[in-house]
Design brief:
By secondary structure, the chain is α/β, with parallel strands linked by helices. The chain folds into two domains: 121 residues, 2-Layer Sandwich (Alpha-Beta Plaits), CATH 3.30.70.270; 255 residues, EAL domain (TIM Barrel), CATH 3.20.20.450. 45% of the residues lie in helices and 19% in strands. The chain has an eight-stranded mixed beta barrel, surrounded by five helices. Strands 1-6 form a two-stranded antiparallel sheet. Helix 16 links the parallel strand 17 and strand 18. The longest helix is centred in the middle third of the chain and has 21 residues. The radius of gyration is 23 Å and the shape is globular. It starts with a helix and ends in a 7-residue tail after the last helix. 31% of the residues are buried. It binds ligand C2E and calcium ion (2 copies).
Length: 392
């Protein structure tokens, strides 16, 4: 073990010295050292973020190198390193608070799932900020102060909008809280159960309004893996859907594959029972983490959403194009529709069309908008698509 950790620290030092903006911790025998050991299995480094942010590709490459296995007596020992990041001055101005907060981020579920996480008060079970936020979230949920914003999904072949994704927002709050932070907080405190039920009921109301305005669109909602573990979740969904038959088959459940891996057998069971009840299932964030083709094949899904991280640099990165093309072909051969997330420019949309991708979503079309704004956006688009004939 000792020897493996020694090799690991050497590997880490070699990988991390390539990180743009890395600062030296000192010298020994004329060599620069970039990592410090906090405890035998935890290392720390200091980075000038303004430099690394301007070289995201090289930064990602260096961080990926950290994950390469260590060669020990000819065996490849996998490391599964988890990274936690704290940023000065927002997360602290002294070494002790920065190290403490980086290590809170490192031990978070997100770092566990994704390999890297930034410090957020909601990840810190000791901070007063988190406790206040939990009770505020509970209040907001009870007082109907949360909102669902809508983002359109475009069919590349027909040029038509086929559906919308509902994304949670907390509008009235002085200090804005991001959707993923709201969800994480809700998951940690059990609030995710009432929250998702609110989201589902709310999305049926939103779809009523869409239908009233002549928009026969699907509505996608995000479901947390915690919901799949609630014993009465499928029953709740079935009751809700049979009370509102006009939405049958039009409310799509988005679940991430990585999150299901925490409890693959039960997640699969629940998804199957939802699919049998006529709920279409979509696999979210595909390609963002560990993927198991043999598991995916068993999922009763009709759609796969390719994660934004693979789409962002599509126009400039040959390697990403190869991965995305392979993913599209593989998903098609398994019978899934493919959606690309995070499409921000025309060039990327054209590339995806050429690659045979079915649908896109992203800022190129629209940011997520409140219902009223989305209704105007849809109406405007419809007018452009079917121009009125000029008189005479
Ligand atoms: P997601 O399901 O992957 O949703 C897509 C995220 O990407 C949204 O962030 C959306 O605003 C953002 N996005 C869309 N197009 C673009 C683009 O072109 N460029 C960039 N940079 N970003 C784009 P948002 O709304 O902050 O949501 C973050 C995550 O929070 C969601 O990721 C989802 O995992 C979770 N979430 C949001 N609403 C809910 C909810 O009601 N329930 C649950 N369980 N999770 C939710
Ligand atoms: Ca989603
Ligand atoms: Ca996604």
């Amino acid at each position: 073990m000792h020897r493996i950790l020694e090799l690991t620290s050497k590997n880490l030092n070699a990988a991390i010295r390539e990180l743009p903006g890395i600062l030296s911790q000192g010298q020994h025998n004329g060599c620069n050292f970039f990592v410090a050991s906090l405890d035998p299995e935890t290392f720390a480094c200091v980075v000038d973020a303004s430099i690394s942010e301007n070289a995201p590709r090289s930064a990602i490459r260096a961080l990926e190198a950290i994950r390469s296995p260590v060669d020990y007596l000819g065996m490849q020992i996998p490391l599964n390193a988890q990274l936690g990041v704290a940023v000065s001055p927002i997360h602290g101005t002294d070494a002790i608070s920065l190290i403490r907060r980086a290590s809170i981020a490192e031990s978070s579920d997100r770092a566990h799932e994704r390999g890297i996480a930034y410090y957020k008060p909601s990840r810190d079970s000791y901070s007063a900020g988190k406790l206040t936020m939990v009770s505020e979230l509970q209040q907001a949920l009870a007082n109907d102060e949360l909102a669902l914003y809508l983002q359109p999904k475009l069919d590349l072949r027909t040029g038509r909008i086929t559906g919308l994704e509902a994304l949670i927002r907390w509008p009235g709050r002085e200090q804005p809280v991001q959707a993923d932070e709201i969800i994480m907080l809700a998951e940690q405190t059990g609030l995710i159960k009432p929250l998702t039920r609110w989201v589902l009921e709310q999305s049926l109301q939103l779809r009523n309004r869409l239908l009233e305005n002549g928009h026969h669109l699907d509505l996608s909602v995000n479901i947390s893996p915690n919901n799949l573990r609630e014993p009465d979740f499928p029953l709740f969904v079935k009751r809700l859907m049979s009370a509102h038959p006009r939405h049958e088959g039009a409310i799509i459940f988005e679940v991430t594959e990585t999150s299901m891996m925490q409890d693959p057998v039960n997640a699969l069971k629940t998804l199957n029972s939802l699919a049998n009840a006529g709920i279409p299932v979509s696999i979210d964030d595909f390609g963002s983490g560990y993927s198991s083709l043999s598991y995916i094949k068993q999922l009763p899904a009709s759609e796969i959403k390719i994660d934004r991280s693979l789409i962002t640099d599509l126009a400039t990165e040959e390697e990403d194009r190869v991965i995305v093309q392979t993913t599209i072909d593989m998903c098609h051969s398994l019978g899934y529709q493919v959606v690309a997330e995070g499409v921000e420019d025309e060039a990327t949309a054209n590339l995806l069309k050429g690659m045979g991708c079915d649908m896109i979503q992203g800022y190129l079309l629209s940011r997520p908008l409140p219902l009223e704004h989305m209704l105007s956006w849809l109406a405007e688009r419809r007018e452009i698509a079917t121009p009125q004939h000029a008189p005479g």
